[in-house]
Structures are given as structure tokens and as C-alpha cells.
Amino acid sequence: MTTSTSTTASTSATAPTVFTLETMDVPGGTETVLRGGRHLFPLLPRAFAGVRRIGVIGWGPQGRAQARNLRDSLAGTDITVAVGLRPGSASASDARAHGFTEEDGTLGDWLDVTAGSDLVILLIADAALAAHHQEIFARLRPGATIGLSHGFLLGHLRETGGRFPAGHGVIAVCPKGMGDSVRRLYEQGAEINGAGINSSYAVHADPDGRAGSLALAWSVALGSPYTFRTTLESEYLSDIVGERAILLGAVHGIVESLYARYRLEGDDPVTAYERSCENVTGPIARTISHSGLRAVREELDPAGRDVFDRAYAATYAPAREIIAEIYDEVADGTELRSVILAERRLGTRPMSRIGASPMWAAGAEARARRADRTLPVDPFTAGVFTGTMTAQIDEFAERGHPWSEIVNESVIEAVDSLLPYMHARDVAYMVDNCSRTARLGARRWGPRFQAAYEQIVYPAAGAPADPAVLDAFTTHPVHEALAAAAKLRPPVDISVAQP
């Protein structure tokens, strides 16, 4: 596995860029990626040629992070970053607290900011974007580029027969992590060049041939360590499926079911929490992040490997079945419609919270014990988690997703962004505080995974592992893809403050 500098000066036939690209070897071929870093910031004015104002519409987790990163990266240039909010938005005071103000023209009404911007980045909630995109489109200035960090709007337009407005570039830059991670790792990048959250980018419409350059500039300005190309449709499918599976929904099902299993085996509540939730978000995630997926098994003793093998082999097929079902329902619009219907049903009413189930009461004591012990990888928990992660990897590969997208959406986003936050708080906290789209998906599919583990996987884990399933894991091409991606990883872990 190698990465090499590419002399290619474009991201596509019509997308020149001022940045130097690299070729990354992946299973079955190569992909072109951009390695980021603060040394590239001086190139941003050239890369953003024709852009004098970037409008960030929305102040949710991504809007809050991206607006600040863009502003800080473009400090000292003649490019302004402005935040647009809906009238009466409760977020206005927080935006002001972070330096965006009406007085200097960097905070204003969302439609006014849209009308005055050359690049309009739409980061309002998915359901709000589905409901109001036509108002935004009508206010775009001629030739302005539409920016997205999620393909949800594309799915909605296809579902309703709509389309993006002609004459406007449509690009996406999609950080592979939550908004807080995007900002926190960017701040760490002030000390360690290249620290940040990886991003994918897509060029959906390019009427003037500069959309690819704008997308790469946007990603560099966010602090992405590396940026890989995808399509808006592929990003939408992998992102929505991933957050319902290994990134959130399946993790919830895994830890709830394992906690109950370990309690039935006689563990006290804190020990059961440590073997389930604490193990996934702590030692298992760290091992994968630093040493790869295969290392979780290889670093166990022979007895532990046997336990891992039985759990992995029992998990893989049932998890794959659910992930394939999720993928089908995302692809045919069912999942999108469920989100829109839920938004109509709920309105502004808060959703009920999942963090009241018995296991979460043990979390605080488990976190307090960290200083006094080094928690080992639990082999059964590791087998279940790794079996589910590999099932998602294989589903994405079979559906034709590029390897950069597969490893980022299935592995890197989990172990380098989401699981560290879950470790600092807990999985329930994450489910109860993520975007409504992700939260709805996790609450719908998490219990499906939980039931499959309890009813199918755990009874089957008593039998010897199928050697063919284990051989497929140990020789899996994902290990090659992760090794290539690891060469672009900054030497820093995300710093997550305790709440």
C-alpha cells in the first residue's frame, strides 16, 4: 500500500485545482486524494477564485463548527464568512458569542445572507431544508454555488420530482464526524499540522468548471487531513445507512444487549457496563484506530481468540441482513419519508430520551474507575462489534462504494470521532443529542439490532466458529484499505473534555 504525489492538476476533466493531489492504492485500483494541512491555507484565496463571501446557513453542530473553521482559515484574506439564520432563531446569541455579528455583516437573515453570497453552504436541519429549499434557491445570486454537507436534499428532490436550479454549481463537502469533532480537531491542528476530520467531496453540477476547486478549498479550510472524492448520491446512501448501523444504531443495540447478557451471567452493573459500553468506546475503538481492525483479534491470547471467533462468526450474517435492509430502505426513499413524517408529527416537541434504561446509571462509576485500571479488550464484545462493522463494510463494497468512503463511513468516523465522544459521555448521550435525522434512525434500528443479537447471535455463539467466515475476515481487503488510509492519519487523537 502506497501513497504518492500526483502530477495531475485536476479533480476531473473540468475541475482545475491549485492543490497537489496524491494517488492512494486501494484494493483493486487507486483513488486520488488530497492531503490537507495548515500549510495549504495560503493557497485558499486562489482556490476560492471568484468567491468573496461564503454564507453558512444554519447554526447546528455542523454550521457552528464549519463557520468558525472557515472564518479562521480565511483570516487575513478578502473572503468573508457570514452566518445566516431564520428570523427569531434561538442560535443567534451563540453565533454572536463566537464573533458573528450584525454590525460587521457576518450575521443576518438566512435569505439575505444567501442573496449576498457566492458560495452558499446549507447546514440547516434536513427536514427544514426539505421544507424551505425553494425559498433559498429563489434568492441565490446568479452563478452562486450551492454547498451541502449531506446528500439528504438530493434524496428529497428525487423523491418529490424537484431539482437543483440550473446555472448553479452544486458541491458537497462532508466531514466524517460530528460538528464538535470538526471544530475540536481543527483547534488541535493549531499545534499539530494536519489534525482534523477527514471529508469526502462531490461535484454534482459544474456549469463553469470551477466546482471541484471550490469543494477542495472548502475541505482544506475545514482542516480535513485528507479529502476523497465520491458522489452526492453515494455519500447520502453511505452516511444515512452508517448512522443507522455501526456509527450509532447498531452500537446502541450492541451495548444494550451485551449489558443484559453480562448481567445475566452474574456481573455487577459496573462490570457489565465496562465489558459492554466501556469496552466498545474505549479499548476496542483505540485498538482499531491505531493498529487496524485485524489487531483486535491478533492481540488476544488463544483463549480470547476462540471467544472472539465464536462471537464474530455468529454476528456477521444476522448483522449483514439488517444492514442490507437498511440500505434498501434508504435507497428507495422509505427512510427519507420516515424522517419527513416524523418531523411533521413531532414539530418542535422534544423527543423522548433513551438514557433512562438501567445500564446508563452505571456509566458514571465506570468512568470514575478509569484512572485506577487499564481495561482489557473483552473478546466476546470485540467479536460482536467487529462482526457488525465488517458486515457494513461488505454491504458497502457489494453496493459499489469506493474504498475511501467505505473505510471512512464504516471505521474511521466511528473510532476517531464518534466513539471517543461516546467514551467521554456514553452511547445514550450521543443518541439523545445527535441530529434529529440520526436520532430517528438510531431509535428505529437500534432495537432491531438488539433483538437480533439477543435472539439469534448470542445463542449461536456457543457453537464452533465457521472457519470460512474467519478466513474471510483475516484476509479481508479492508485491512489493505485501512493501512493506506492510516498513512494519511495525523499523529493525534481527538481531545474530548468531560461534560
UniProtKB/TrEMBL annotation:
Domain KARI N-terminal Rossmann: 34-234
Domain KARI C-terminal knotted: from-to ranges: 231-373
GO molecular function: isomerase activity; ketol-acid reductoisomerase activity; metal ion binding
Binding site for Mg(2+) 1: 239, 243
Family that this chain belongs to: Belongs to the ketol-acid reductoisomerase family.
Pathway per the UniProt entry: Amino-acid biosynthesis; L-valine biosynthesis; L-valine from pyruvate: step 2/4; Amino-acid biosynthesis; L-isoleucine biosynthesis; L-isoleucine from 2-oxobutanoate: step 2/4
SUPFAM superfamilies for this protein: 6-phosphogluconate dehydrogenase C-terminal domain-like (SSF48179), NAD(P)-binding Rossmann-fold domains (SSF51735)
Cofactors named for this entry: Mg(2+)
Keywords: Amino-acid biosynthesis, Branched-chain amino acid biosynthesis, Isomerase, Magnesium, Metal-binding, Oxidoreductase
Protein name: Acetohydroxy-acid isomeroreductase
Binding site for Mg(2+) 2: 239
Taxon lineage: Bacteria, Bacillati, Actinomycetota, Actinomycetes, Kitasatosporales
Biological processes annotated in GO: isoleucine biosynthetic process; L-valine biosynthetic process
